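Let us practice reading a record.
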Amino acid sequence: QNDDSRTSVLLLNTGGLIPNDPISFVDPKTSEPNDYTVTIIGKEAFLGKDLTNLERLPESIEMIEESAFKNCKLSKLKSLPSNLKKIGKYAFSGNNLVTLELPSSLTTIEDGAFKDNRMLVSITMKENLETIGADAFNGCTSLEKLELPKSLMSIGDYAFSKNSKLESLTIPDGLNKIGAYAFNECTSLKELKLPESLRTITT
């Protein structure tokens, strides 16, 4: 935490969650809520905790680190904070998300960020997103709708592997790299349009 700016990194969930409300940041010494603005959710902050009723996150959050919400039974969260810039490795993997809207501030989705969200039907990506890491949406077996933004530059290995309900996808002009097996086992994919800007398809 930073006393001058009153900002904080939430490293561990010490105070619990209020159902249907954003994360409450509680001072572990006094057990009282403080007035720090949480800007980063730290590595494994809520790993494995039951967050079934969590519907939103504080708008102040700019970064969600590795495995922060991994295996948390998230199902009611439908959008991410408007200031979020980066989603770390496996940050939301193994949850029950159904629909999700990503903010226009987001530039990076790291490896495995949404892996094995088997109930995810649709995800909305906005302009400014540049990188989708390896395994980012691997195992999202219910994903039906997907529109990639024109700002996207690279898709990692196995990024959309096992998206067995995805039927069509247009790769935006501007993208220059698709990783190995990015669309492996997308058994319903009938059409994949590739742009002239594409320079590398890894094998």
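A brief commentary: DSSP finds no helices and 14 strands in the chain.
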